[in-house]
C-alpha cells in the first residue's frame, strides 16, 4: 500500500476509535429484586439507565424489553448487547435517552396461568410497573411507556399492549410467538404438556387445547374480539425473519391488523430465530417506540 494511503487509513481508524471512546456509557444493573405479593416470591429484573441518569435530575421514558423462552432478565444484556446498542443510538440521537427494564418471566409467557396459581400478568401490571415508577425517575404517563420483546417476549409485548392499551403508547414485537389454532392443536403432546399445557390446560389433546383461557390470551383471537378503537390506542411494530418458524403467525397477524384497519408497521428481513436477527433489529424497534416520546 502507498505510504500516504497507509497513513490516511491509520488516521481514519484512529478517528473511529476516538469517536467510539467518546460514547457515554449507560449503567446496567443485573438481577435486581422486587418482592411480589401476588407471586409470593421475589421477581428479578435487569435495568439499563442512560449515561446521564446519575448526573441529571430529569425523568425518563421507559421501555419494558421482554426476554424469550429459555432466557432470563439478563438475556438482552448478555446476548442482545443492549447496553452497547442503546449507548450508541442515544449518543447519535437516533433514540432519545430512556430507561430499559427486562423482568425475569421464566416460561410463564407473561400470562396468568389457567389455575390462577402463577399470576404473572397481574404482577406485571399491578406491582412491577408501579414499583419501577416509584423507584426510578420515570415519566409514568402512558405516552412515555413502551414495550418490546422477542419470541415469548414478543408475544408478551403484544399481549400486554392489546389487553392493557391504557398503559402503553407503542409496542415493538420481534419474532413474536403468535401461533394459529392449528399449530396449537397439532403440537406434539409431550412438547405441549411440558410447555403451553401448564399455562392453558394440561393433558388436553388436539382441539380440546383451545380452551376459553387460551382464547383470552391468543393474539389472533384478541384482534378479532377486542374493540378496534381500543387496539388503535397503541402503535405497533412487527418484525419477523423470513426463515423463522413463527413467520406464519406473524404474517397472519399482519393480515388481520390490515383487515381491521389497525395501523402498524410490518417488517420481514432476511434471517431466522436467532440473536443475530434480534440484535440487528432492536434499535429500529426502539426508534419506533422512541419517536413517540419526542415532541413533534
Count of domain modules: 1
Order of helices and strands: HEEEHHEHEHEHHHHHHEHEHH
Q: Helix proportion of residues, in percent? A: 40-55%
Number of strands: 8
Tally of helical segments: 14
Class derived from helix and strand content: alpha/beta
The biggest beta sheet reads:
8 strands, mixed
Low-confidence spans: 11-19
Kindly report the CATH topology. Rossmann fold
Major β-sheet strand ordering: 1-2-4-3-5-6-7-8
Characterization of the model:
The longest helix has 19 residues, at 3-21. By secondary structure, the chain is of the alpha/beta class. The chain has one domain (27-179, 218-291): Alpha/Beta hydrolase fold, catalytic domain (Rossmann fold, 3-Layer(aba) Sandwich). The relative contact order is 0.13. It has 14 helices and eight strands. Mean pLDDT is 93; it is low at 11-19. Helix 10 (219-225) runs parallel beside helix 12 (247-259). Helix 12 (247-259) links the parallel strand 7 and strand 8 (264-267). The chain has an eight-stranded mixed β-sheet with strand order 1-2-4-3-5-6-7-8, with helices on both faces.
